[in-house]
Design brief:
By secondary structure, the chain is of the alpha/beta class. Helix content is about 25%, strand content about 25%. The relative contact order is 0.18.
Length: about 170
């Protein structure tokens, strides 16, 4: 697992993210990608330490990327696009959502990703973000796996993913 950063122009700061690339990665071959979203108070590095995540990725030959989601309390856009709490910017939800999409784009540019096998998963706050981003960008994901999702929003949005495989834990 590698820790990386990129400059997030809209936030005017360096953003961390973590990535796992299977040993024996071959540039000539396409790989499935799992985007993994951390829960409230978590981090990209903490998400990568979820039990079995990288071991299964190695065993089955896929890349895993864990964005920070702008902050440990970003909600990936699922609780609306504004924040009035603490030191958070007012557009916290928008920034957290955009960070995920930026990291997805960076990963697709750096590695041979099979665009027909891009999966999104997340735990708790990240599970809510998984559903939010799944419904907002349904053509980007092959399947969703929200784990104990903290869900905010109307169930009407689920119609956007009615034909997508989803496993809810």
């Amino acid at each position: 697992t590698q820790s990386r950063t990129y400059f997030f122009k809209a936030a005017d700061k360096e953003m961390p993210y973590s990535i796992f690339v299977p040993k024996g990665y071959d540039k000539k071959k396409s790989y499935p990608l799992m985007v993994a979203l951390h829960g409230l108070g978590g981090s990209d590095r903490g998400m990568m330490r979820y039990r079995g995540l990288t071991q299964l990725a190695q065993k089955h030959g896929y890349i895993v990327v864990a964005p920070m989601g702008y902050s440990s309390r970003g909600w990936y856009g699922s609780r609306g696009q504004t924040s009035r709490r603490g030191n958070n910017p007012r557009n916290l939800g928008e920034l957290s959502e955009q960070d995920v999409m930026n990291v997805l784009e960076l990963t697709e540019k750096a590695y041979r990703v099979d665009t027909s096998r891009i999966y999104l998963m997340g735990h708790s706050m990240g599970g809510g973000g998984t559903l939010h981003l799944g419904m907002k960008y349904p053509k980007r994901w092959t399947a969703l796996a929200p784990i104990a999702p903290a869900i905010y929003g109307s169930p009407r949005g689920l119609s956007a993913i009615r034909d997508m495989p989803v496993i809810v834990v």
